[in-house]
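Translate sequence into structure tokens.
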Amino acid sequence: MKVLQQNRQVVLITGASTGVGLALGKKLRDDNRYHIILTAREASLSRFESEGIKESQNLWIRPLDILSKKQRDHLITEIEDKLDGVNILVNNAAYMLRAVVEHVGEEERLKQMDTNFRAPLSLIRRVLPKMREKRAGKIINISSVGGMMSMPTMAIYSASKFALEGATEALWYEVKPWNIKVTLVQPGFINSEGFQKVIQTRESIKAMEQPHIDYFYQYTEMGPFIARLMRLTSATSESVANKIFSVIKQKNPPLRVSGTWDALIFGLLRRFLPRSLYHTLFWLMLPRQLRQPAASIPKAKHKINTNESKPNSSFGGI
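Result follows.
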């Protein structure tokens, strides 16, 4: 049974219990042009009530582990049955894995790619048939400055965002004939405690605790370096949510939108500087300890575990 929507646009937001997703939900909840569906993992649903967000006729709160095919399918089916489908999909749910390449096992790599890349694409696949049928729709993928440039200790996170950006660019061409708009929002550093919530691997935790291990300085110097940049920026979750809201309102939004001023600057530098100069400049910006010759750092006595865990992705399938 379909619910009368009075021409409201149905907006589905993933990862909406915190940060940018929560700020966007708050911004949209009182706008009568939209029917909002806020999602989060079951364990995080209580955050909505603590933030003063309650269900109403035009605001749904639904559990969604984006790695679960069953939950994805159930949610989209409910939306199609009751609201005639998603009009605007905001793929916001993601997390950051912090580790150098050598310290990431196969299972950890798969989970990062599943969460930040494969799951958003699977949600896109589920909502596209209705959008094509209506000859209208918007898909907004929240990427990162890490999707256009990489930094030490964030290789796999950047890989997942680079992959999302590549697929989104192809999608922009693919669905244009059906009047479906596709946009990447690229936030940079946000003034929050978000960097303290990154996930670390077993090997990266060991390396941070023992100075004699190779990559010790990669971790201990990059953490404060990123924290300083986050404290210096004026960007907040609310300001990034405002950028996303402007994309939602635009009739013809661009493929890429800089979510913060630093993302705009990094994008311009990467576009116009010769690559060799760009990488040299960024290398010189990094903390001095990271640029020491290997011979000046005590030789590691720790042996990296190269027996990677058997792939056991929790992803529900594409």
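Note: The longest helix spans residues 106-134.
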